Structures are given as C-alpha cells and as structure tokens.
Amino acid sequence: MIDSDTFDPADTALVTLGSPLGGRIRTWDDQRPQTWTIVDPGFFDGLPGTGAILTDPIAQGRYRDAAVLDRENNLLCVETTTPVSRLGGVIAGHEHIALVPVPDPVRPSGDQAASLWVEFERILVTALEHAFERGELLIVSGPSADGPSVMLGAMTRHLRRALILTATPAPSAPIWPDARQGEEDRTSIVSDSCTDALREAAVRTTVALDSWEVEPLDAVITYVVPIEALAVELPWTAEDAA
Fold first, then answer.
1. CA 126 – CA 124 distance, rounded (Å)
2. In terms of CB atoms within 10 Å, which end of the chain has fewer, N or C?
3. Cα–Cα distance between 206 and 123 in angstroms, integer?
4. Taking the model in full, what pTM does it have?
5. What are the pLDDT digits (tens) for 120-130?
6. CB 101 within 8 A of CB 35
7. What SS3 string covers the chain?
C-alpha cells in the first residue's frame, strides 16, 4: 500500500484506463497514451469489469473506467464503489497504485498478444455479466470512440434471453459472418444468452479487434446506459403538462 501523503494533488490529471493485462496498463490523458508497469498488479484482481471502478462520461450515456494520475510521483488514485448487498448501498474507497512508465512500449509478438487477449476476454465476460444485470450495453473498441468497434447487448426475444453482437465495420475473420448485401459497413450475430455464449462473444470481440490491428492494451470497454444515451431535452416541462 502506498502512503497517501506521497500522492501530490497539485499536478494530477483524470485519465481513462485500459485493462490491466500482463502486469501493465495503458492510460489516456487528452488522447495521449502512456503505458505503465503496475508495481502491485494484485490490486486489480477481480476488479476490472465489475463496475466497481470510478467511471468518467465520454459522451451522453457512455462511460469508461477512469482514475486520477499524479504525474510527479507516478501514482494512480483509483476510486472504487463496492455494493453492500443487493438491497442497496455502497462502500466508497480508494487506493494509490504505484506505476513505472514504459517509455517505448514494443508491440507484443503473436504469442504475447494471444496471451493478453485471453486475459482481456476474462475481463470482458465479467463486464458483460455485470453490465447486463444493470441493463447496460457494452462497446469494445480502441481508444477512439469513433473507430471500429463491437457493440454487445442483451434483450428478451420470444420469451428467451438473447445476446446480440454488432461489429462495425464487418471484421475480416472467419469467426464472423459476412455482411449482408447493402450492410457492408457492419455485421451482427444473435444467439441465446448463456455462460458459453458470453465466452464465445468475448472471443469474437477480440478476434474483431485483432483484425482491426488494435493492440490488447489499447482495447477499451465503454459502458452505455441506454436511457441516458436516448434522453433528449423535451420542449415542455412537467408544469406545462399539468
């Protein structure tokens, strides 16, 4: 544990977090990437994808994991909220994580990338389970919100829970179906929602990201709250309707 007195709030920045993979993590500050080695990676065990890490809105109804970075001391302040029970209530906390900057990160080899993708798939399955419980969708992409992405959501279809994946653009990979005529910019898969389907969805997602040449450490999960994303300012107020 890092002494809180070491953390200097005078020179801090709110950063977006990638997923901790292989003892490293990538952060973005004003779209500038920085790769770090995590001194104590055990802090993140069981945390990513659960919704316990502080999030920051990147657009209406869209959120990404975030933390506060002390640039002088290379410390990351991660705020967490842990549910007390299903009946409600949360416990707020925070931890200071020591980081070591990686000046010139080398793109992982094929075997290294495959191992990191497996780690990311585990995090993604956890994120899917928790997001669907909250009624949220997930968008998995590189750092750019406007780049290639996979959207994952769940819905009830004919009294059965369905899992829907939509990749934009259609990935050039056999595990994904060809785009339908007239919809070459995307392709979708619908299946029953179960544990095996979530694992398969995670694999399809990493295959798509890899086909778009996204590195594992650059993979970012965006949480989408549909009711917020669809909300618009009505031209009247409750008093007008009374």
1. 5
2. C
3. 12
4. 0.87
5. 999 999 999 99
6. yes
7. CCCHHHCCHHHEEEEEECCCECCEEEEEECCEEEEEEECCHHHHCCCCCCCCECEEEEECCEEEEEEEEECCCCEEEEEEEEECCCCCCEEEEEEEEEEEEECCCCCCCHHHHHHHHHHHHHHHHHHHHHHHHCCCEEEEECCCCCCCEEEEEEEEECCEEEEEEEEECCCCCCCCCCCCCCCCCCEEEEEECCHHHHHHHHHHHHHHHHHCCCCHHHCEEEEECHHHHHCCCCCCCHHHHC
Tell the residue number behind the tokens 């290294």, with chain if given.
Answer: 112
Least confident of 75-79, 81-85, 96-100: 81-85
Task: Specify the pairing of strand 55-59 against strand 62-70.
Answer: antiparallel
